[in-house]
Amino acid sequence: MKQKLIEKLKGKSAVIGIFGLGYVGLPLMLRYAEIGYKVLGFDIDQDKIEKLNNGKSYIELIPSRKIASAREQGFKATSDFSKASEADALILCIPTPLNKYREPDLSFVTDTTDMVVPYLRKGQVLSLESTTYPGTTEEEMLPRAESTGLKVGEDLFLVYSPEREDPGNPNFETRTIPKVVGGFTAACLEVGKALYELAIDQIVPVSSTKAAEMTKLLENIHRSVNIGLVNEMKIVADRMGIDIHEVIRAASTKPFGFTPYYPGPGLGGHCIPIDPFYLTWKAREYDLNTRFIELAGEINTNMPRWVISKVIEALSDRGKPLKGARVLVLGIAYKKNVDDMRESPAVKLMELLEERGAIVHYTDPHVPVFPKMRNYCFDLASINPTPDRIASYDLLLLTTDHDKFNYDMFQQHAKLIVDTRGVYLDSLPNVVKS
Ligand SMILES: NC(=O)c1ccc[n+]([C@@H]2O[C@H](COP(=O)([O-])OP(=O)(O)OC[C@H]3O[C@@H](n4cnc5c(N)ncnc54)[C@H](O)[C@@H]3O)[C@@H](O)[C@H]2O)c1
Question: What Cα–Cα distance (Å) separates residue 329 from each residue in 68, 381, 400, 405, 419?
Fold first, then answer.
């Protein structure tokens, strides 16, 4: 069974099924289609399925022509999970958020697996890519897979391979990002390597699914803790009248032993604010507290409030209260050059500003209309930032440093800018660094 599946994967006659066609699943689908595999895409969002089948993209960084060309290669999207039996590889790229108690919400993964289980058959490989705590594949996927009567490692193969997509990063694409793979058994790992090795330049095998799960968490916790550290350093430096960005630039000239991390208005995106708490939750089962994670979380979560205090101070220095002030937020995506709004600190800032009586508008070349979000509702569209409009605001709050912004024009016409990203290097009379 194993050898037959490996041959199919290596000969590209295997059908690849991808579940969850979002920021992770869609680029992976494109990669498999590009190298000649037949790919089936599964999603529960009918709107996405229709768009994809009409050759249209819904992610700004993925052009529709790529979807259209995948369609020509035989790619099809569907919400009919019975078609899972047609796929030889089932790759799950499903959301793994936190619930309202900030605990892992694995329901998307377990629901999808439950929907797929009736269609599992001999000779398939099941790979989970969603970020999660160590043990998920063994504790959640394995019993479901074996409930079919199939034996994992003999009839069916189970792997965990974390996604490392970095949307908006021009230096890497799916092919060039090394891929960590862990198998439930040695045979599972062998199949897992065959699944990814034609699509990805470098495969990094590890000894277990747990090690692969922990690898992804280490990567994201490393970022979250270091961003927490540099955010704390920013607060200290600010109080001392030092520009943290100047310090980071200087420290970055050290050719060894220093990695720059950049402070900001708070953490954003689907990964860094969320994933570390998957480990926090699991560690409790082992009577352990994850203090670095909690501390970084506390500092990072408080950043928007610290930025608001700087906004209030900057306005008050010019004799203006925040209540009634006209504030334009520059950039509402969670990071530069993307249209992704998940967990964006800019939105938290908009909420805090409104709560304090400010009149808030935004401009973002990547987000023309404020989208529907789970926790926020703003009936706003991006304004066109003409010099006259810029001059009409009491304060510009620079929250996302998109390349498409005209920073010189902002600076020339704004009454006051609070810069949370260190865009303005010089000391300027109308710019407050925050
Ligand atoms: N976005 C990133 O940059 C990134 C990077 C690395 C890892 N990850 C991880 O990858 C996973 C997916 O993240 P994403 O950013 O692609 O999420 P996403 O929200 O962009 O996409 C998830 C897709 O899954 C679909 N979906 C939800 N429930 C489903 C179900 N039951 N069956 C089929 N489809 C379903 C949604 O409709 C959506 O299209 C998460 O675990 C995330 O932590 C994300």
Answer: 36, 12, 9, 12, 10
